[in-house]
Write a structure and sequence with these properties.
Radius of gyration: 40 Å
Oligomer: single chain
Strand content: 5-15%
Structural class: alpha/beta
Number of helices: 20
Number of strands: 8
Helix content: 55-70%
Number of domains: 2
Distance between the termini: 6 Å
Strand order of the largest sheet: 3-4-2-5-1-6-7-8
Length: 579
Amino acid sequence: MSVTPEAAPAGELSALLTAVTGLREQVAESALPLSLPGAAAADVTRTQLLNQLDDYVLPRLRSLDAPLLAVVGGSTGAGKSTLVNSIVGSTVTRPGVLRPTTRSPVLVHHPDDTRWFVGDRVLPGLGRITGAPAGAGQAGLEDISAVRLVAVDSLLPGLALLDAPDIDSVVSSNRDLAAQLLAAADLWLFVTTAARYADAVPWGLLRQASERGTSVAVVLDRVPPEAVAEIRDHLSSMLKEQGLSLAPVFTVREVPLDPAGLLRPEEIGPLKEWLTALARDARARGMVVRHTLSGALDSIDGRIDELARATTEQHSATRALSKVADTAYAAAAVGVERGMSDGTLLRGEVLARWQEFVGTGEFFKQVESTVSRLRDRLVAMVKGEPPPAAELGEALHSGVAALVTAEAAAAASTTARSWRGMPGGTLLLSQRPQLAGSSDDLPDRVQRLVREWQDDVLELVRNEGQDRRTTAKVAAYGVNGVGVVLMLVTFAHTGGVTGAEAGIAGGTAVLGQKLLEAIFGDQAVRSLAAKARAALHDRVQELFGAEAARYQEAVESVEVPRDQGRRLMAAAMGVKAAR
């Protein structure tokens, strides 16, 4: 159901106002932080929609009986200010002699209508200045962040004119403000000239006005008297092509201005009569308002569709960035697991220290000779004085720390490399260059992790050796010594080790396994090794989780809520239902 502003029941208007207010909140909360394809255009759409809701739709819904606001817009040098001064009959806005002209937009109204414009009912983002500018008729610079209000008796109540900056100004702030003011208009009074009426920039805005249902009237200025009919007909055909065939066209011939610098009455007579009729006829004004307001509301769906698609793409992009980091650190955890079970940690320094620990490197050459020799060696080790375990423990510590550090570095490198090729990734890396590698304090945290894991293993040994018989065996060999052997057995699997190392690692496993079985028993050793491995796994997962969280925090700083697009669409449906 379409609501006509001049005769809308209060309840229906209240529901529509509530729905549009809710839509405005959703649009304001939406964000497009990543530079994805189409995001810049969608962000412009978002800004324009927000401005139109704030500057026109909401103010008009709250005050349907407010004066009709006609914004006078057009190209540089089209004669907008001269036209406004001529309609009013005095110089209330300063024509620009210098280009570009940077000055406050001027809103001219009848004194009885002052209350409608002194506050922030319309154009709430702009300040207010009152009175005609000093030195009218001379070019100068003013702050464009305010609207200059000029009250004149010559303009009838019910109609206000707003002289806007040039729509094709070389100053971007002027162009942006002009577009914003046109979106705030009940009526766009488009001023062009016989020489420039086909320019591309104004026609882009005219197409936008047509698409959004804005009421438009055209003033064709500075037309050579002998070419009035020809140019007017051509302009009318162009308007028809853009869906603006109903827009009235007023022609101003190229003739000298009067002594006061104003257009002569006969040149602006038809336009002034038309505007006067609007000011006197509440129903006619209501029709203009209805047409423009309905057009603005009709245009919401298409713009919300664009914005919702863009927000969905933003969410998908941030999710993809998050997944890369999660996958990289999950792979790093698998890498540590693999390094714990493929014999990697039994090479180099660890092997050398283990040989010293058991007394002789010759043992490994005899590992397959006879079972009896192995048993003799184990008995001798359990009954005799154990050799120092510190150096072997330190070698294991260094090996584990190096493995964890290397896998963390690989995960950070993989994440950063992938992000550089993904939408939004380069932006986040430029904002947080430290994400190109692991945390600065990672080495210290890894060292602490391994020490704490070794403490976990020693605690397992103490807890397992609490009965009398086992306590004596552990005491004979030393808690630290037994703990070191348990750490080594935790890693003593030969998958991935080949050649001579396979025999060495296998011998390491057999000897360590038998030693622990002699102390705790077969089943207990398997349980202890599993617990030690799980304890290290948990600590590594926690560490890698903290490293991955750095990337997640970066993503969260720009992350678009998953349901943002749905909420935008729901708010637009709410407006449609309220209408």
